[in-house]
Write a structure and sequence with these properties.
CATH class of the largest domain: Mainly Alpha
Number of domains: 2
CATH architecture of the largest domain: Orthogonal Bundle
Structural class: mainly alpha
Number of strands: 0
Number of helices: 4
Shape: elongated
Radius of gyration: 25 Å
Length: 99
């Protein structure tokens, strides 16, 4: 049995499909048939677009702007915690009295 590869669709392709359904009023089944994709995929893209607007369909490996900012802040927090721990250890070493 031949294994079929998963197809990948560009952001523009998805937006155009959603646009046909939402703005042009073309039925989902017709759009799906014309684009040779499953109707459920068009429904899924439409739901994503309705929920996320222009932030939908960011692509593989790309983050939404708010997720990117969150990741940057988490990294910065981790660095600050490491610096704090180093300073705590240094303070302990320098305040220790040797008899």
């Amino acid at each position: 049995m031949a294994k079929t590869e998963r197809r990948h669709f560009s952001q523009e392709f998805k937006r155009n499909a959603v646009n046909l359904v939402m703005e042009k009023g073309v039925p989902v089944r017709k759009v799906a048939r014309d684009l040779d994709i499953h109707p459920n995929l068009v429904h899924q893209w439409r739901r994503m677009y309705m929920a996320e607007g222009d932030g939908a369909f960011v692509g593989t490996g790309n983050l939404k702007p708010e997720d990117s900012e969150l990741k940057r802040l988490q990294k910065e927090l981790e660095e600050v915690k490491e610096e704090r721990d180093i300073l705590k250890k240094a303070l302990g070493v320098f305040t220790k009295r040797s008899w």
